[in-house]
């Protein structure tokens, strides 16, 4: 597709274990190949494992800074329970699940789509693994099902970032205003840039994340905006209140229609994980694999999603690699070297 010299030179460079190749920069010299990602990860200084809640296997760190914390500033130590509740409060306030009193509306909002567009000059040979990992990361960050995540990936493109062609990327995230609050953005920027550093090998200083608020009026599916859909639900709910006089509810445009329209959209045109619809095969293989059961609401972010101490690796041509979500989903069905 792209036949420019950047891509050609990148193509000629040896692929790494992760199947990711960084373009040889015509401007600055490409970095020397260093130790593998696993070796670098093992060498990285990591804070000692957090004290676990006594007597069980809860793996969540209690020393993780809360959203809005200035890392490094001394703060009074909170009791672990208080700390966890406070963290959970922020997580649920700024990212779903929203718990309104209208279930149909709540569901629409909790399943509102988050789109992400990633552009990078790095060449990713296993697009499926990369995009699946990113989708899982965003599904976790924004607390919505995988079927509510849309990602477009443009890789191996010609990108001049801050005057050099070193590995870099831009990521634009579109979501409803409630999901893109300043505190949430601060946290998600750090966590997502760290994710990109680990999966793409792009240091956070060369990864530009842009959060774009997209109001309900500005998104549509099936010819109807989300705002219209929500208004319809509210109107129908008001109509159905006992003792109120409103227009009779029309079954074809009622609550169930609204919910059904979204779910049928999800199962028909999206991955439809809960429906056991086959997922796209890895781009480099012809096989079709069924995804195992996946939780509708993703689990609490794993312990490794700490915002602090995001290490900047030396610029390396070797590909970073971390265990793909696919292995959690598919077990041994896919060979790890794909
Ligand atoms: O952006 C969304 O998540 C979104 C838009 C939209 C429009 C619509 O008519 C629906 O029924 C659902 C929906 N979700």
From TrEMBL:
CC annotations in GO: extracellular region
Domain of life the protein comes from: Eukaryota
Basic and acidic residues: bias regions: 303-315
Positions of the UniProt region annotated as Disordered: 1-48, 63-83, 231-255, 270-322
Reactions mediated catalytically: L-dopachrome = 5,6-dihydroxyindole-2-carboxylate; 3-phenylpyruvate = enol-phenylpyruvate
Group of enzyme by EC: isomerase
GO molecular function, one term: phenylpyruvate tautomerase activity
EC number: 5.3.2.1, 5.3.3.12
UniProt-annotated location(s): Secreted
Keywords: Cytokine, Isomerase, Secreted
Family stated for the protein in its record: Belongs to the MIF family.
PANTHER family: D-DOPACHROME DECARBOXYLASE, MACROPHAGE MIGRATION INHIBITORY FACTOR
Name of the molecule in the record: L-dopachrome isomerase
């Amino acid at each position: 597709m792209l036949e420019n010299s950047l891509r050609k030179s990148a193509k000629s460079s040896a692929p790494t274990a992760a199947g990711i190749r960084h373009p040889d920069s015509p401007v600055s010299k490409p970095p020397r190949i260093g130790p593998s990602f696993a070796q670098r990860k093992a060498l990285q200084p990591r804070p000692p494992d957090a004290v676990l809640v006594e007597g069980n296997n809860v793996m969540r760190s209690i020393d993780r800074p809360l959203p809005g914390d200035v890392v490094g500033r001394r703060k009074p130590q909170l009791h672990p329970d208080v700390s966890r509740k406070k963290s959970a409060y922020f997580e649920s306030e700024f990212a779903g699940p929203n718990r309104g009193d209208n279930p149909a509306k709540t569901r629409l909002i909790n399943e509102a789509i988050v789109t992400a567009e990633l552009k990078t000059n790095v060449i990713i040979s296993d697009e499926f693994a990369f995009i699946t990992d990113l989708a899982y990361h965003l599904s976790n960050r924004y607390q919505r099902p995988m079927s509510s995540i849309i990602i477009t990936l443009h890789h191996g493109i010609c990108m001049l970032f801050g005057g050099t062609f070193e590995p870099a990327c831009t990521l634009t995230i579109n979501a409803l205003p409630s999901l893109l609050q300043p505190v949430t953005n601060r946290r998600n920027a750090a966590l997502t840039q760290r994710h990109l550093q680990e999966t793409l090998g792009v240091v956070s200083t060369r990864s530009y994340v842009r959060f774009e608020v997209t109001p309900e009026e500005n998104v549509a599916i099936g010819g109807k905006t989300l705002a219209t859909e929500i208004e319809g639900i509210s109107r129908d709910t008001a109509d159905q209140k006992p003792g109120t006089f409103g227009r009779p509810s029309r079954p074809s445009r009622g609550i169930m229609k609204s919910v059904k329209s979204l779910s049928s959209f999800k199962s028909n045109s999206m991955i439809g994980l809960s429906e056991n619809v086959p997922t796209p095969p890895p781009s480099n293989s012809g096989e079709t694999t069924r995804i195992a059961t996946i939780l509708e609401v993703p689990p609490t972010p794993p312990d490794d999603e700490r915002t602090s101490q995001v290490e900047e690796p030396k610029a390396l041509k070797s590909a970073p690699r971390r265990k793909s979500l696919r292995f959690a989903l598919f077990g041994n069905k896919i060979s790890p070297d794909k």
